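<instruction>
Derive structure tokens from the sequence

<record> Sequence and structure tokens follow
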Amino acid sequence: MKPSTYSRWWRGMALLTLMSLLAACGGTDAGQPAASGAASPAASGAASPAASGAASPAGSAGGETGSGPKLNPDVSGTVNFWHFWGSPVRRNAIRRVIAICNQKLPNIKVSETFKPFGDIWTANIAAVAAGSGMPDVIVEDRPQLPLRAKDQVDENLQELATRDGIDGSAFWPFTWQQTLYEDQTYGIPYETDVRVLYWNKNAFKEVGLDPEKPPTTWAEVEQYADKLDKKNEDGSYARIGFHPELNARTEAFGYTNGVEWISQDGKPQVNSAEAVATVEWVKKWVDRYGGWENFQKFRGGFAAPPQDAFMSGKVAMFTDINGYTSQLDFYRPRVTNAEGNQEEMTWGVSYLPYNKEQGSTSGGFALSIPRGAPNKDAAWEFIKCATGPEAQASWARDTYAMPANEAAAKDPILAADPRWQFFVEAMDHTSGGVFLPEYPNWKEQLEQRFEKIWTGELEPKAALDEAQAAIEAQVNK
């Protein structure tokens, strides 16, 4: 659900403070979103804070990021920490966080272990079930934490949190709510995100579009794609303008059309008129590019950055999380222009195109202690440090991920970049989703039917009616 009115007011006051800081330094107008054409470091060739590897402590600038929970440096032990951050940017970033915490907690030695994204949680669940081999701390998929708690995979941290004054007030509200099961926390929020639109300014220039003016509505993004689509001689697509099923996906675009997939009081409504219209709109894009099979072939040609859909120049308008900015800063991709020459890609960020209102989705992660972990006291001290404002600001500077700790989002080095101000503002228009305790995996009913819609096997309304009935049946059991 969207942030509360109080939370919006608080963030608004924080942004006003940032505007004053920037104005005092003669910086860019903080009230102007990056989408309006403010030159980003990637466009100008200047290194951003994330790309420059600034190593100063995140809390060094006058204590702007706050002090965080009190740590106990007398606690000793070893902490085996599992994560899935293997890219050059994120591996270095998490090692910097560990270095900060090793300094603050001199009697605790933290070792980090990389586990592939698809394996980390199944490996942990198996270890917990076996009673050995689990890590002391794991990066958990935050929206899944209530299910992990229900299945007794992770430790209940509420007693420790209460003892040390951690009540959720330091974090974006929805990130804390997602850690709760029966009003008890099973993880401390670590990072979150917001899905936004990236656009290739080189491609815009090539086809005569204003490179500083991204599309804002569903209608506009279709008009832009009409100009940006480019075919090879054999009729295949050399470049597509846009596709909603690349990263943001249907759920996110539902929020731009006034959809509440689950109501605030926990009632499923996945077959609302707005939901049906959203799915019909996505289906138009699938058909536009030759159907689902052809799109899958097109998507299958992408690899990891810098050979992904956007950096390769094959998708001109692309949805991804704010943390994708760090990948663009790191790789500084080059694209082929109309004359066949290579040039540096310039790009911008903006809101997802909307039909009724601005909207997006946010995911993210928490740090948890698996049930039966051998070094709980040391693990807890590390979690407090890593989710505190100094370590969180360090992580955000390096990765451009949105820290779950709101104070860290006020880090003055981050605030000096207009793109960061835009990402913080975009958090006002995002949803963290809704957990249904009666049916934690309710989204599977949609996912099972979406592909059948895209292939033409099911009509959108009939498919969503089926999904609604299936979710209601599970909830009512």
Remarks:
- Residues 195-350 form a domain with the D-Maltodextrin-Binding Protein; domain 2 fold (CATH 3.40.190.10).
- The radius of gyration is 22 Å.
- Residues 1-65 have pLDDT under 50 and may be disordered.
